[in-house]
Design a protein that fits this description.
34% of the residues lie in helices and 23% in strands. It has helices at 11-27, 41-44, 50-53, 61-68, 124-133, 146-153, 163-169, 204-207, 213-229, 277-291, 294-300; strands at residues 2-7, 32-37, 74-78, 90-94, 103-106, 118-120, 138-140, 158-162, 176-178, 193-198, 237-243, 253-260, 267-274.
């Protein structure tokens, strides 16, 4: 049996596809995996800020279409790139074990940044949260693959990246400072992979063998927050879910959500715990929108 896996062609995307391919072979012994590389809108345009391109979806739509058109059987995405809600005809087949969801500063530790330091990032969320923590910071744009971003980090005081990306590629810059989610709350789904297939795919149930239950529950809670807001990386929102117990046992999750103004002057945050992750995600979003001024912040953005 051959399974065709659609992915973007970046080094990170191919690394993630290889990870899923290994899980497929382990889950379905004897299967052959073929990687189908797809160029996306986000790959073709490497200069326009993501929020101006439409934010979430610019790295996944063409990959999803390859599955819907039967050019591939599965799609592998960074879960943070998925828009809210489900795409018609597709199912989220698996969420494998999650990598570290935190953001990192590359080039300088946060506590060592001088007054008025320049930070490179292409994320409005990262800018807003860091500006809220350090209003003196200045920001410049950052797009391109990991290598390009590491080069850019040498031209400024520091650059912000996802720790999972560096870890998956085995990259170890000289100075890497993981940022506490209390300072910079991760993007919805950051550090997690999302494996999609057609809703009627004959192996849909078998693919659940690649699922990590802890990662699945956390991502579903975060995406419920995203769905309620109806937006993503084109506005400064963030959510992070984690097991409520240190040993990761038990069904209880602690979910944190945040909405900020683009300049970071205002940031509202809420944290709740419970066993129904999606319900908590929805409830946090409604609380921030209706009771903490989140709706006005989003309208202003």
């Amino acid at each position: 049996m051959r399974i065709r896996v659609a992915t973007r062609g970046s080094a990170l995307a191919l690394c993630q596809a290889d990870r899923v391919s290994s899980l497929l072979v382990r889950t379905l012994p004897g299967v052959e995996v073929e990687v189908v590389i797809v160029e996306t809108t986000g790959d073709r345009d490497k200069t326009t800020p993501l929020e101006q391109m439409g934010g979430l979806g610019v790295f996944v739509k063409e990959v999803q279409l390859a599955v819907l058109d039967h050019r591939a059987d599965l799609a592998v995405h960074s879960a943070k790139d998925l828009p809210g809600g489900r795409t018609d005809g597709l199912s989220l087949a698996a969420v494998p074990e999650r990598a570290d969801p935190r953001d990192v500063l590359v080039g300088c530790r946060l506590t060592d940044l001088p007054e008025g330091a320049t930070i490179a990032t292409g994320s409005i969320r990262r800018r807003a949260h860091l500006a809220n923590h350090r209003p003196d910071l200045r920001f410049t744009g950052l797009r391109g693959n990991i290598g390009t971003r590491l080069e850019k980090a040498r031209e400024v005081d520091a650059a912000v990246m996802a720790k999972a990306a560096l870890d998956r590629l085995g990259l170890c810059p000289e100075v890497v400072d993981p940022l506490d989610p209390a300072i910079l709350l991760p993007q919805v789904g950051q550090g997690a992979l999302a494996v999609e297939c057609r809703a009627d795919y004959e192996l849909l149930e078998a693919l659940e063998g690649m699922d990590d239950p802890v990662a699945r529950r956390a991502v579903e809670a975060e995406r419920a927050f995203l769905v309620e807001l109806g937006t993503g990386c084109d506005l400064p929102i963030a959510a992070h879910a984690r097991p409520a117990s240190d040993d990761h046992l038990g069904p209880e999750l602690t979910v944190t959500g945040a909405i900020a103004s683009p300049d970071g002057a205002i940031l509202v945050r809420e944290e709740r715990s419970g066993t129904d992750g999606p319900a908590i995600g929805h409830a946090i979003a409604r609380h921030l929108l209706d009771e903490r001024g989140g709706a006005e912040l989003m309208a202003r953005s």
